[in-house]
Queue: 2 jobs
Job 1
Amino acid sequence: NAGVMQNPRHLVRRRGQEARLRCSPMKGHSHVYWYRQLPEEGLKFMVYLQKENIIDESGMPKERFSAEFPKEGPSILRIQQVVRGDSAAYFCASSPLKGNTEAFFGQGTRLTVV
Amino acid sequence: DQQVKQNSPSLSVQEGRISILNCDYTNSMFDYFLWYKKYPAEGPTFLISISSIKDKNEDGRFTVFLNKSAKHLSLHIVPSQPGDSAVYFCAASFQGAQKLVFGQGTRLTINP
């Protein structure tokens, strides 16, 4: 049973370009979460999705950021018109059940904006 | 507003001794707490969790203690091993919210 798969592992974008980060949850997991970790900080919640639904996007910046989890395929975190401050590690996690349970994390995508 | 705080950025412990990592929280609505371990360039790995109805949970070398009145939890690792060197994150959640609120992390170094 493969773990949570994120790609790419490293992504370099110039200011103003778009970044697309992909996450395939563990088999059987229907809940996906995205977190961002800035240097020397803890992980900050961004968005929680179930298939075709955004359940909680309270941690998402109001502009330029969007997320989806389509019926088929991976979850996508999309950042439009990236700025230097978007440089961070973005982690995806998945869980099988609703309610309190541990989430399993992918290895992350390290985004660098130059 | 840092709802989950790990006030020690780093901790150094001799191999074989006990490592104690601390975490404080401010939101009394939290009812589930977790510890994650993270190596450089990897995602966090789940270690152990505890529900607010308990005050202790043990799994092998790892024990988590929860003091609800003090809004404090701690992770004990005994005996500490070199492979335990990593950054440890405390996280909390509450029913209906799903999302985890993380502390800033504590870098644990186990010295031979």
Job 2
Amino acid sequence: GAVVSQHPSRVICKSGTSVKIECRSLDFQATTMFWYRQFPKQSLMLMATSNEGSKATYEQGVEKDKFLINHASLTLSTLTVTSAHPEDSSFYICSAGGPGPTSRTQYFGPGTRLTVL
Amino acid sequence: DAKTTQPPSMDCAEGRAANLPCNHSTISGNEYVYWYRQIHSQGPQYIIHGLKNNETNEMASLIITEDRKSSTLILPHATLRDTAVYYCIVRGPLPGGKLIFGQGTELSVKP
């Protein structure tokens, strides 16, 4: 299957700082990427849909000014957690789907573990 | 997107078939059934998907009832590495069909 990578795999930051997480589709072009968040012992929660060349669409209750999403190319989407606080500590996962044979399937990255002190 | 119902947990003996059920009684005609699994602290892994016909790949088989209100994921010979949370998801048509995760079934494969 198609490969999606995330960087970094884990990050620890101080409260009030901003953290950027990258999501890349390595062997296919992704017109749409999705960002999820997962708290311990819970399921994945969709945060937003990232569309190449246009603004992201956020799910209800997700603050767009706090979670900045940029999808500047067909292989890269970034999520920036601004002014992070301890309650933002979570497992952030992206997924990507694109044109061609992979279009009906979303492939997920390995996730980024964010810890805010 | 239609909601799905799965048992919270299941056990399976190593080497035996694991049959994971999913109910999706409100599924509409153009919605697909997708299965993913998540091993602890990893991103979800795609397993299989289908619309109305049964599907099989190298990982699993997907059996969808004729009325499409339920489906079963079959892992033919479960191994310890198949221990994971399995998610059954009904997805709307593309573009824009989002994958909305429920609570899934925690499958434990035991020696």
